[in-house]
Amino acid sequence: MGERYQKLRRQFVVCMLFLVVGIAVVEVLFFFLVHRRETSWTTYSELYFWLPLLFNGGGWIALYFVLDSPNISDRWKNFATIFYLGFLCTTVSAVHFRQVPAVVGCYHAPVIWSAIYGDEKLSRWTHAISQIALAILCAFYSWLNGGMGNNEIGIVAIMFTLVISRLLATMLMRFVREKDEMIQLHEQDNESLGKRLMREPMTGLYNHSAFYSLLEKKIRERGDAPLSLAIVDIDNFKSVNDTYGHENGDKVILYLAELLKKHCGERFFPCRYGGEEFAVIFPGLKGKEARGVMEEILAEFRTKEFEWNSGSGITFSCGVFQHNEVNMTATELFQIADQMLYKAKQGGKNCCVSGL
Asked: What sections of 69-145 are H helices per DSSP?
């Protein structure tokens, strides 16, 4: 949600710049269309053109730097946009205080805008500040003119409509909040689905597609840190399936998967990219260190006695290779690690062979 509000605030700043310029242009047009015969441009522009432009432009610059600062929280940046909108309304209303009933209605803008952020406390404060600012302007108008004249009904109407604006803001805020909750729920569902699609359903390890994506990603991210890859193949697995059945073969795969999870934890990435073929990505480990981890797993794996195979343990062969070239691709790393696996198979199986 923070990114969405960041984009919204950027658009707000652009709109406010156009509004500041637009107000100045309207004041110039108002002079030539209405007040040109009554007063000079010099007298008129000091109050109606230069003063609002100075305050509004200066406030806009301050708002720009506030929104650009990395040290200010999102909530305070949201409040800064609302505060500036209220500041703009106050500047225009103060300059045109003789037309208070017609102008101060612009205080509806910050009240409505506050609802966009879905922050109830922020909306309450905005409404309260708008009412106070309106009351101060009306008191100022009454003091200058010796009373409100025929404007009492207009002022009361505006105060009442601000309450209506607050109610509308509450409704809008509730709608925004519900929409945000729906978006968040969809994002969570999509994230959960994405994670499920990356996992191999039987073992819960990363699947074939996820393996290559992870390997490419970790190679890009490694920098100067070492990275190693281990390729594992269960020895004589076909004979296990043929002799003891596929159900018992699945138990062997599941047991090896559990060992990989146990020894790899959250730091490393065990994958099942084929039937009895596994791979482990070792970010931050040199080849010898990765081989040590795999030998620990092999030592525990070969001592497992299944009820249907108590006579001899089942083993695996493993090839390990450390990524050692800047331009080495994921495919090339896999191919070399697979060559190490072939050497382990040729060397009698039940062992780990590593390269640099």
From this structure: 74-95, 100-103, 108-114, 120-145
C-alpha distances out from residue 159 to 102, 265, 305, Å: 12, 62, 83
The 8-class DSSP code of residue 98 comes to: G
* C-beta of residue 13 within 8 angstroms of C-beta of residue 63: yes
Neighbours of 174 (CB within 10 A): 13
- With beta carbons less than 8 A apart as the criterion, state whether 104 and 137 touch: yes
* Residues 202-211: tens digit of each pLDDT: 888 888 888 8
Write out the DSSP string of 192-259.
HHHHHHHB-TTT-SB-HHHHHHHHHHHHHH-TTS-EEEEEEEETTHHHHHHHH-HHHHHHHHHHHHHH
DSSP string, 254-274: HHHHHHHHHHHTTTSEEEE-S
End-to-end CA distance of the chain: 45
How many other C-beta atoms lie within 10 A of the C-beta of residue 244? 15
Q: Is the pTM of this model over 0.90?
A: no
* Rounded Cα–Cα distance for residues 319 and 135 (Å): 79
CA distance 254 to 65: 57
Query: Which residues, including other chains, have CB under 8 Å from residue 205's CB and lie 6 or more apart?
Result: 199, 257, 260, 261, 270, 271, 272, 278
Chain position carrying tokens 């002079």: 31
The pLDDT, as a whole number, for residue 170 is 66
Contacts of 138 (CB under 8 A, 6+ apart): 100, 104, 148, 155
Indicate if the alpha-carbon torsion angle 41, 44, 48, 54 is positive or negative.
Answer: positive
Q: Which residue has the tokens 């409040």?
A: 79
Residue ranges of the chain whose pLDDT lies below 50: 1, 193-194
